[in-house]
Amino acid sequence: DNILKIEASSVTPTVYSQIGLIGDFNGWSSDVVMSPCETSNNHNWYTTVTFTNDDKGKFRANGSWEINWGTPSETADGDPLYMFTGIGKANGKNIGVKQGTYVVLFNDITGGYWFFKK
Predict the structure, then answer these.
(1) What is the pLDDT of residues 39-53, one digit of tens each?
(2) Is 18 exposed, middle or buried (0-12, 13-18, 19+ CB in 10 A)?
(3) Edge-first strand listing for the sheet containing 85-87
(4) Largest CA distance in the chain
(5) CA pair distance 60, 81, nearest whole angstrom
(6) Which end of the chain is more exposed for a tag (fewer CB within 10 A), N or C?
(7) Any residues with CB less than 8 A from the CB of 21 and at least 6 apart, and which?
């Protein structure tokens, strides 16, 4: 017998006022602020960004390094396996990005990120 059981989550996720993308492409100086997908109770964020070179970056909350997400790779910054999609790890290594223009999506509950080339 295959049985599926779905239960309500008891987790209350943190609500962030801002999620940004920062990295080599902007000198690690200021976030590319992402837009919320919803006007309230938002946990999905998006932006369009152009990378002029192959670089590395991370997501972070509220313009601070206190809460940030990087690649889940245990081996190296910019691991190509996690370049276009992955589950961001708290304080993880830098995510590799390829030159080009991308629509970038990020979920602050799961850490899921996606880079879709335009």
Answers:
(1) 888 999 999 999 999
(2) middle
(3) 35-36, 44-51, 100-107, 112-117, 85-87
(4) 55
(5) 21
(6) N
(7) 31, 32, 34, 47, 49, 57, 58, 59, 104, 106
CA angle centred on 79, ends 57 and 47, rounded to 5°:
35
Helix (H) or strand (E) holding 70: strand 68-70
The contacts found for 71-75 with CB under 8 angstroms, 24 or more apart, are 71/95, 71/96
Residue 74 has pLDDT above 90, yes or no: no
Residues belonging to the chain: 118
pTM: 0.89
One-letter amino acid identity for 4? Answer: L
Whether 72 contacts 89, CB under 8 Å = yes
DSSP letter assigned to residue 36: E
Sign of the alpha-carbon torsion through 110, 38, 33, 50: positive
What average pLDDT is seen over the chain?
93
